[in-house]
Amino acid sequence: MVVLNLRPSGHRDGVMIRRLLKFALIGCLLMALLLAGGSWWAYRQLAGSLPQLDGEMAVSGLTAPVTIERDSLGIPTLRAANRADLAFATGLVHGQDRFFQMDLLRRNSAGELAELIGQPLVDQDKRIRLNRFRDVARRRLAVESKESLEVLESYAAGVNAGLKSLKALPFEYLLLGSQPQPWKPEDSMLVIFSMFLDLQDDAFDFEFDRGLLHDSVPQELYDFLMARGSQWDAPIHGSALEVPDIPGPDVFHARRASDVAVDLLQPLDQLTIRERFSLGSNNWAVSGKHTADGRALVADDMHLGIQVPHIWYRASFVWPDETDPARQQRMTGVSLPGTPAMIVGSNGHIAWGFTNTEGDWVDAVIVEVDPSDPDSYQTPEGPRKFERHTEVIQVKDAAAQELEIVSTIWGPIVKRDHQNRPLAIRWVAHDTEGVNFGLLHMERVKTLDDALHQANSSGAPHQNFVVADSSGRIAWTVLGRIPRRIGHDGWLPQSWADGQVRWDGYLNPDEYPRVVDPEIGRLWSANARVVSDELYRVVGDSAYDLGARQQQIRDGLLSLDQATEADMLKIQLDDRALFLQRWQQLLLDVLSSPAAAGDPRRQQLGQHVAQWGERADANSVGYRAVWLFRGRVIAQLSDLLGQRCTQIDKEFSLSKFRRIEGPFWKIVSEQPDHLLDPRFESWDAWLLAAADRVIEAATVNGASMDQFTWGAINTTRIQHPISLAIPALAPWLDMPSRPLDGAWADLPRIQGPKMGASQRMAVSPGREQDGYMHMPCGQSGHPLSPHYADSHPAWEQGQPSPFLPGDPIHTLTLKPSTAP
Description:
By secondary structure, this protein is α+β, with helices and mostly antiparallel strands. It has 23 helices and 28 strands. The strands form seven sheets. The chain has an eleven-stranded mixed sheet with strand order 1-28-2-3-7-8-9-10-18-19-23, with helices on one face. The radius of gyration is 29 Å and the shape is globular. The N and C termini lie far apart (77 Å).
């Protein structure tokens, strides 16, 4: 053993060393005390921002006492004497548990994130500020109904009371060195606009890209690539639409220099696979004729980005029935922090669920600038000056920046097209007629017909509204305001200067498309086309999903004649990869061809593909291989057929369009010579090269192909916004990462690293005790709360939790304050 002798040779040096060691020890002790004190202070600050759960709390703004009962998962049951007091209590629990999340939502749509976060978010704020949503929110509140306004004002008062009740600021503000700003009624409208952005923000880009493609390729090729449907269609009204025939070599020839410049094609090793996550959801209803006990069922799982804290907040509202005060009205489901409304759920009379329609609620308007005056543009009433608004963007720790917004009678100018023409955006979200808090009134609806009318009157991001009532009836319609289009279908950018193309207000509820009590006894939607013919024209077509997911759900429902809640969950968790079966067979054919012989790695891949398990299984190598093989082929076809567009806009890609599968599969299965990629001598060589790219990916750097599982990339990364900026806090703030079954698109169990089912439920109105509901993360946004992540395991494992809150373990009574 080696011993280090630290004794100095001289006495004076020894005294000095001992003194230094003494001071060092004292310094370490002081540092430890400071750290301990700092840790204790930090813990006290964190613990101080936990909400009060029991006892009494005196608050100003109530007309009568309210009780808040929380169960073992922190799910509150709010009992109030009237709707305004109920809104106050809802705001209080939201403000206690989720204020930072709500703040981000309002700032997101207002374009005010840089004020809280700083310079990195200035560009995002500028992009969003073009919508001037805070101005729209204020104008909407000026015409909102007195009843809704009372609820919004009471909710805002409750939020601020909840925030004030905390002994310390929410921890996010401590880290950011910021002060939370009070909640205002207009902020609840801004939260709704954040949902518009989440669900419809890419609609303008899709129309822009269609316009670019339309002007860049022959009409016949455009019609083929932008096919309105395919064999995967599964509407509840009408039938599938066929993909047109492949255009002949006279229209487009991949080996003709005028059609394809080989030197401008992307290198094969640089092609990007643009797999779109299916943001949007599944829902369906089964009538009482096809359930085990004669009651109708509604199932819903909304697919959204998932982060901590989670977007939804489970709750149950109880207050007197307005038509019979002696009876209690109960509404249970998921609320949206920042708003007083229940988004989906059941009120005992009706139950409903949502999926994003992907209909057309946004138009790109080509603005014709007056050739004699660049500050004017053509309108149906003649030339008109552009409106200009200056927006000031506050930036944390930096100077404010100004943004000039140029607007037209149709909306703001957002970009220029490939011909350098200014494009304005016409969007329902910009209209005070297009948005409202009509969803608040859904909670007291008692009949199916009234529910349809209320859905059609509500101004929110447009949803497939599937509803059932307690008598066993079911129906589908669109929730959200539908514009009345004149002279166009909204598919391509057009000039509106002559007035022949326009919006003429909004449809009345009796003009809306509806499917009520279908003979088949089931209704379903999954972001694909739901209706046909005239109803399809009314809803429009923005970016419908392919339909494979919707078809798989339909077939699952039709196989049931005695449906139960357990059957609903099985369909929600269905991860069978039916859509990829034909791609699996194609890859097997490629790997078993004579050209593939002699390579043991190809044989090994073939074994994995043959034994893939037919599911999007986290442990499956075969599923990932088939998924990647398809992605490679799609990327090459996109590069080949969209080349003219990518030369103009590098971000353009045909693979962005979800229904491109129909035309592309037709090409791959028919293999016409004139659409053969000029980088290859034959289709066999092309497809084998795509298979070899899969092998290269699976064995990169000498890796074992056995480790190339789907779960290796389909591993959850559900993060808190703070941990994105401070990764060291990730173990404390983020959910544990787990490989999960499910796919990014085209089957019912949608699951990606940061996206997936934001909740799953099935319920029968009037029998809520038999229903289930689960969601990721937990009720609280506070990492010291026991409810920060306690809902997460059931969501990961697909285990049903009771739809109704359980027995209370905490009870807080809010009492009207007598203080002035």
